[in-house]
Amino acid sequence: EAGVTQFPSHSVIEKGQTVTLRCDPISGHDNLYWYRRVMGKEIKFLLHFVKESKQDESGMPNNRFLAERTGGTYSTLKVQPAELEDSGVYFCASSQGIWANEKLFFGSGTQLSVL
Amino acid sequence: RKEVEQDPGPFNVPEGATVAFNCTYSNSASQSFFWYRQDCRKEPKLLMSVYSSGNEDGRFTAQLNRASQYISLLIRDSKLSDSATYLCVVNYGSGNTGKLIFGQGTTLQVKP
Fold this sequence. Notes:
The complex is a heterodimer of chains A (115) and B (112).
Chain A: E1 5-7, E2 10-13, E3 19-24, E4 31-37, E5 44-50, E6 53-56, E7 65-68, E8 75-79, E9 88-95, E10 105-106, E11 110-114
Parallel strand pairs in A: 2-11
Antiparallel strand pairs in A: 1-3, 3-8, 4-5, 4-9, 5-6, 7-8, 9-10, 9-11
Chain B: E1 4-6, E2 11-14, E3 19-25, E4 32-38, E5 44-50, E6 55-57, E7 60-65, E8 70-75, E9 84-91, E10 100-102, E11 106-111
């Protein structure tokens, strides 16, 4: 069974440009999460989808970030315009259920570098 | 103050050694607790959940002390393959159950 896949694995862009990250969760997982790790800091929650609905977007840094999950399948995270501080590793995760001890499966991440 | 605090290390130990990592969390409402492992440039992977009664999985033992808001991970008979970053993770558990709060991680290097 395929795991959580993310594309691209690396992206290097200039400040002011737009970048779109994609995440394909494990098939059948209704819950999809975005997390981010900036250099030297801990991994931080960005937002949570249940199917196509945003359950919690309290971690989104600002309105330059837009996440979508059309049809409740794959998700995209767009950064427009990108700033230097957006550099980091963006992880996507999915889970089947909603229990507090539910296991999250993480993708291998997208390394974003904004120059 | 960080919500989950860990000693970043690195911990450098010889093969066969026993090593312990500790973690404290600030939110007493936290309901679920985990240790994740992250290899260099890889994604975090669940190592084990942590329960108040303590739990063991092979060479790994995890303990939770709710009164002190403290979590520990003990690794016995360290292997070279145990070298990684160990992430202490809590979940507040109400509403958004996937909103994990990560510590910064503790780096372990096991030497031959």
